[in-house]
Each structure stands twice: as C-alpha cells, then as structure tokens.
Write a structure and sequence with these properties.
This protein is an all-alpha fold. It contains 7 helices and no strands. The protein is globular.
C-alpha cells in the first residue's frame, strides 16, 4: 500500500534530502565555517548521514525508473532496508525525546533542547523518513526477524563508542562517553548495562510495531489490488 507516483516520490525525496543535509550541516558546523569532526562521532549525526545517503539512493533509483518505466509505480532499492533506516532514525528521535531532553531538564546543565538544529536532526529528519516509507515504499516485504537485525545498527554504535572511549578517544566536552546513560563513571557498569538492555527492549517493541504496521498495510494493499476491476481490453 503506497502512492504509485514516481514524480511525487522524486520531489519528496529531493526535498527531504535537502532538509536532512541542512540539519547535518548545521549540527556539524559545516555551514558556518566552524566544522566539528567530533559531531560525526555521535549516533544522531551518523543516523542522519545514513538517512541522507538512503534518500539520495532513493532519488537516483526513482529517476532511473521514471526514465525506464514511466511515472506510475514504486521505486526503492529495498523495501526492507527502507524500514531499517526508518527504525535507525526513530531510535535517534525517541532517545532524544524520552531520555536526553528529560535528562537535560533534570541536570540543568545549560543545554537548550528544541533549537532549530536539534529539531532538524532529531525530529524533522525522522518524520521525513517515516513519511517516505509510509507514502512511497511497498509494504509487506519485511520478515519477522528483521527487527532483531535492525537493533544491530544502534548496538554496533554502542560497541564503537565504548571501544573508542577506552582507546582514549574523546567526545564533545572532552568526555569519554557520547551520552549520559553510557557514562560508566557516573552510572557504574551495572547501571549502564541496565540502561542499554532497557532501551534495547523498549526499542524492539517499536521495531515490532513497525513490522506489524508493515504487514497490515501490505495485506490491505493486496486486498485492494485483488478487488480492483480488471483493466479493459
């Protein structure tokens, strides 16, 4: 179940890519002449880059299909991977809204959430990718085990961050940990493990919800096609 119009999909994807690029450029300082390589060590920016790359690939595929097959139909290199990208950027949004923003208000550390830059990379980009999946990607292609594979993306980042910090690498503010819930010095090993296990479990609930929505929309799409009258001639 999707909107079978490649022209509309191409316009959406190009516009979304520009917005995501804008967010990445702002958060990394590329657009104000003060680039910060440290920002590229955070899952937020890496997941936005994943989205930007995927939107560019989607746009290229859409252009190719427009030329080869015309304006009607769907264009995506992989419907299953589209949902993996959506899940990854959803992790960014939910951790920001449910964990990091409340942490900021509790700690009173002077950081101001919900700025334009924060909104672009934490909220706008996720909504754009979710919108692309809902509108233009065929549904019902995912498998029951896909949510388990999707979790490997943020878990791989967690492993990278701990290894990077253990080897002496520093994140913003000279800290060894990118996010407060990963701070072993403050939370202890047990506390960090509980945070990671709890977040993984909660996000897997979201992942399986996506899987359920995908299956439901796929079934509705098949039912609609079966009921559609045959073309004349």
């Amino acid at each position: 179940m999707y909107v079978p119009d490649r022209r509309l999909a191409l316009a959406y994807r190009l516009a979304a890519a520009v917005v995501v690029l804008w967010g990445v450029g702002r958060v990394s300082g590329l657009f104000d002449g003060r680039p910060s390589g440290v920002q590229f060590l955070y899952f937020t920016v890496l997941s936005n880059i994943l989205c930007l790359t995927w939107l560019v690939l989607l746009a290229i595929r859409t252009i190719r299909d427009l030329r080869a097959h015309g304006p009607r139909g769907a264009s995506t290199p992989s419907a299953r991977f589209s949902l993996a990208v959506v899940f990854s950027i959803t992790v960014t949004m939910l951790v920001y809204l449910i964990v990091l923003v409340p942490e900021t208000f509790t700690q009173g550390n002077g950081y101001t959430p919900f700025t334009l830059t924060d909104n672009l990379v934490h909220i706008v980009a996720p909504c754009l990718l979710i919108g692309d999946w809902l509108l233009f990607v065929p549904k019902g292609r995912s498998r029951w085990f896909d949510p388990l594979a999707w979790a490997l993306i943020p878990l791989a980042y967690v492993a990278f961050a701990f290894v990077y910090g253990a080897l002496g690498g520093l994140f913003g503010g000279g800290t060894r940990y990118p996010y407060p819930f990963m701070d072993v010095d403050r939370n202890g090993v047990d506390g960090v493990v509980l945070w990671i296990v709890g977040l993984t479990a909660a996000l897997e609930v979201v992942a399986f919800a996506y899987l359920g929505i995908d299956a439901l929309l796929g079934a509705l799409g098949r039912r609609t096609r079966e009921r559609a009258p045959a073309a004349p001639g």
